[in-house]
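This week, study the protein below.
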Amino acid sequence: MSDVYNQLLDNIGTLLLEGRRQAVLQVNTTLLQTYWLVGKHIVEYEQKGNEKAEYGSFLLEKLAKDLTYRYGKGFSRSNLSYMRKFYLTFPKRETLSHILSWSHYFEILKSDNPLEISFYVKQAEKENWSVRELKRQMKSMLFHRLALSKDKEGILQLAQQGQEIQEPLDIIKEPYVLEFLNIPQQERYLEGELEEKLIQNLQHFLLELGKGFTFEKRQYRISIGEKNFYIDLVFYHRILKCFVLIDLKRGEVTHQDIGQMNLYLNYFKKEVNTEGDNAPIGIILGAYKDHILVEYATESITNQLFVSKYQLYLPDKKVLESELNRLLEKMSIS
């Protein structure tokens, strides 16, 4: 086959792939528009006094039976209630994302918090999350974990724009949730075993770390004099343009751990960074931390060094929701 023919084959292939992608987008857009209109018709019918505007009204049950009889599957009472909520939550049709599918919206609408709903729409769109990734982030209470570390303006910005990475503090979570490792809470494990499991589940770990992380190396060796030191995990952050060093601690983080991480950061600044690299970031992940000890141990450190907790199980949803609601009430955010 000639090069000209191969080029023709490639060109046709590119057109077909793009055509199929556009077809999928068009189908998705049409489906979203249709379900939004279904919700609109239901709400308008209720508002005219034909039926009480209640979430579990008899109307949805009757519609589910009649629509299923006429048009087949896809019109269960649950689906219809979400179509109704879809319209009520997004009353302006032009605000709908054409990148997200109905399955995305279905998961997001399980929340009743407008700020949380807005955040997951923006973040799922920006990060191009699959439905599976979205479900994991919602289950791990990502919005709550990020919002609890912000002020009033920060929470509103988080909901309106998603997570914006502009400074080192923006990449820190409290806590990090590592439930995907499937380590039982009572099981004894070593730091090396935790590291090994994170490497085996690197894709999940990168999702938990957030946007911009690329994996560089594990057990990164640095030599100072006749001594060798090993950093558990080293990443590079594409947005902040800096190395991110992560040390794992099975128990409580000590002041010695903080001092050692500070040593690593100083070494990277002088020996590893090249032109264009910003100052490295250090994150010590421990199962526990004493906030006062961390405060004193990091007070005079000029490096970007953070201490955060990790959990091997999903956070308590009620506790995080209660904390966030209390914060929102305190800030008088409607």
